[in-house]
Amino acid sequence: MPNEIGALGVLAAAYRALGRYEEALPLYERVDADDRADEVACGHPGRQKDISCIYWVLGDRAKSIHLMRTLVEGVLDGTIEFGDAAGGVQQGLLLYYMAVTMRDSQAATFAVDYMRNRARRSAIQSWPGPVARHYLGEVNFPSVLSAATGAADVESATSIARSKLLSRRRLCAALFHDEVRSRAEGAEQHCRARMRDCYQLEDPLIEVEWYLARHEVEQADQIKGARI
Question: N or C: which end of the chain has fewer CB within 10 A?
Fold first, then answer.
């Protein structure tokens, strides 16, 4: 059974990489059910983050936000114990993106409050903690880039990320969430440029931000093509 579930996870990731989200979704849901049913992994978030983002690109935004908010609430009430090295920051970052994009001020406020909660913990120094601190105005974007790659400008950071997978994964998130911050501030042109920067990185495979950026770029290109 573990080998079967592992194979399903690999297939789900492959379908997602190919943009075949309808086929990826039920596989992620099967793997998620197995992850969370494992008593040894009690408190595991399963694949809910991946599932939420697939619902997002498939157009079910309400379902997506509900799932991501449930992950955030699970960290707060202790039912979810496993997350990223920063103490479960990523789901808050993703919830904020969804809330800003949908202009859901209540969900956006909730996500920011959650990031403030996480920022009070020493684990916030770990990745992706610097991204949350950027949202909160505690560090600037060059500091986020430096934490992600060791370089404080986009050009140098991108060069490093080409040969270092971990740096590419982190840069992907840094660029994506700088875009979200721009969108929240009404700078949509900068937002779209950052989305393309993120998407133009080689697919780091497991970073949901890359797939969300790809979806945004594809949507923008479709709209642009329809106007020509």
Answer: C
Lookup result for tokens 């699970």: 74
Q: Is residue 2 part of a domain?
A: no
Q: 149 with 171: CB under 8 angstroms?
A: yes
Handedness of CA 77, 106, 180, 112 (dihedral sign): negative
Per-residue model confidence as pLDDT tens digits over 20-54: 999 999 999 999 988 877 755 567 788 999 999 99
Task: Provide the domain count of the chain.
Answer: 1
List, for residues 169-203, the tens digit of each pLDDT value.
999 999 999 999 999 999 998 888 889 999 999 99
Task: Please name the residue that has the structure tokens 């209540």.
Answer: 106
Instruction: Please confirm whether the linkage preceding 26 is cis (ω < 30° from 0).
Output: no
Structure tokens at 168: 């590419």
The mean per-residue pLDDT over the stretch 75-96 comes to 90
Q: Largest Cα–Cα distance in the chain?
A: 56
Segments forming the whole domain that contains residue 202: 140-228
Closest CA to 88 of 55, 123, 63: 123
Instruction: Report pTM.
Output: 0.93
8 A C-beta contact, residue 135 and residue 96: yes
Q: Is the residue at 6 inside a domain?
A: no
CB distance 27 to 15 below 8 Å: yes
Q: Domain for residue 53, yes or no?
A: no
Residue 60 lies in a domain: no
The one-character DSSP state at 127 is: T
